[in-house]
Design a protein that fits this description.
Elements (H helix, E strand, L loop, with lengths): L6 E5 L9 H15 L3 E6 L12 E3 L4 E5 L2 E5 L3 H14 L3 E5 L6 H8 E2 L2 E5 L7 H5 L1 H10 L2 E4 L2 H11 L4 E2 L7 H4 L12 E5 L9 H14 L4 E5 L4 H5 L4 H4 L2 E5 L3 H10 L2 E4 L9 H8 L4 E4 L2 H6 L7 E3 L4 H12 L2 H15 L4 H16 L6 E2 L3 H9 L2
Parallel strand pairs: 1-2, 1-6, 2-3, 6-8, 8-9, 9-10, 11-12, 11-14, 12-13, 14-15, 15-16
Antiparallel strand pairs: 4-5, 7-17
Helix pairs in contact: 2-3, 8-14, 12-15
Length: 392
């Protein structure tokens, strides 16, 4: 990338104050680019503007919840949101726009419709063909035509994009700041010889916590001191009411963690377990665990299988198979040398996702799309609004 300092408009489709991999990716990328001297403005839905602390963030209004890809997405759409997107673009005078997940009805799609000029899009999701996508496919075609470059965060995301829209993308993975995890220390209140960890929206079935909880009593027969730490958003009180006493006695729910607490979390567990059942295109938490030299046991869904080198950089178990999970977790907890081998392999693999390397690849894409372009201005999406109205 040349030494040119850019004005970059970045768009998040999802609520900024709701934890999620896409928001984390955007936040880290924006801050990395700002540290390199570029000007970045991020437009996102925000539920509570009083809790916004990032100077580069611009709120487009409060999001609403919709079911999407096996989860609940908090998005913002419609004429009012469109007006705010146009105002932001007009005021920004950006060299380029970088939109994320523009194929869902949210701010990124609105930005694509409203803008003229170089637009980079990053596609994060990996999902089977959805009838909803086919239904609105004609509406999305003008957006796809306006994209100057497309990025997918994994081969799974690239395959999903090709499957839905018959178009290609360059694969650039999610990034992590490996230095955040390298020198962190374990929390003595969490760490035991046989502590295992889970991070995620534990109420979502696709995150697979129930599978791990069902395996816990089997593991406890071999390791009576086994302890499970569960971190992430969710209604702990409601969720724990249905858990048997033998599981509750071995499980501690930590709620949301700060970055510092998450680093300590990884250092405090003997094994990090990712029992997800699907809907993942990458696995940023796994990359962070590897950067912490924490051995991983993960389901063999395609995204995790690829991320872990088909078992080279972490142990894989048959997805949704409690018996296989129990057997492999017990084996890993009882084999220190095996854990040390995966610690070393995972740490080496994590360097591929360091933000310095990833941001350089993204900047190379920016440089490519800027050749022959003079910046982002307002376009017209009236024909698309008419098509939406005509389709009910």
């Amino acid at each position: 990338m040349s030494d040119r300092k850019l004005r970059i408009g970045m768009v998040s489709p999802y609520g900024w104050d709701t934890p999620g991999g896409v928001q984390i990716h955007i936040k880290d990328l924006a801050e990395n680019l700002i540290a390199q001297g570029h000007e970045v403005s991020v437009l996102a839905p925000v539920s509570d503007e009083s809790q916004v602390h990032e100077k580069y963030l611009v709120s487009a209004g409060r999001p609403v919840s919709i079911p999407y890809n096996g989860a609940v997405a908090r998005i913002l759409f419609g004429p009012v949101a469109s007006s705010r997107v146009k105002q932001w673009i007009a005021a920004g005078d950006f060299d380029l726009l970088h939109v994320h997940e523009p194929a869902i009805p949210s701010l990124s799609l609105l930005a694509c419709w409203a803008a003229e000029g170089p637009i980079v899009a990053t596609f994060h999701a990996a999902a089977a063909k959805q009838r909803a996508i086919y239904a609105i496919g004609p509406i999305l075609e003008p957006m796809l035509e306006k994209l100057t470059a497309k990025i997918a965060v994994s081969e799974m995301a690239r395959a999903t994009l090709k499957d839905h829209f018959e178009t290609e993308a360059v694969v650039i993975p999610n990034g992590i700041d490996t230095t955040k995890f390298k020198h962190s220390q374990p929390n003595p209140n969490w760490a035991t010889p046989h502590t295992i960890g889970f991070i995620g929206r534990f109420e979502e079935p696709r995150k697979g916590l129930d599978i791990l909880l069902r395996a816990l009593p089997h593991v406890a027969r071999e390791f009576p001191d086994v302890k499970l730490l569960v971190a992430g958003p969710g209604d702990i009180t409601t969720f724990t009411k249905k858990l048997p006493l033998e599981i509750m006695e071995r499980t501690e729910f930590l709620g949301l963690l700060t970055d510092e607490e998450k680093s300590a979390f990884f250092k405090s567990v003997a094994v990090y377990v990712a029992p997800n059942t699907g809907g993942e295109s990458f696995g940023i938490i796994l990359a962070e665990a590897m950067a912490s030299s924490t051995p991983i046991l993960a389901s063999d869904i395609p995204a995790f299988d690829q991320l872990l080198g088909h078992g080279r950089d972490g142990v894989l178990f048959t997805s949704e198979n409690v018996e296989d999970l129990s057997m492999k977790l017990t084996s890993l907890l009882g084999n220190v040398s095996e854990r040390e081998r995966f610690q070393a392999a995972g740490y080496l693999r994590a360097q591929d996702f360091d933000w310095k390397r990833v941001s350089d690849q993204i900047l190379d894409v920016y440089e490519m799309v800027l050749v022959g372009n003079t910046g982002v201005t307002l376009g017209s999406e009236n024909r698309v609004w008419n098509r939406i109205r005509n389709n009910g």
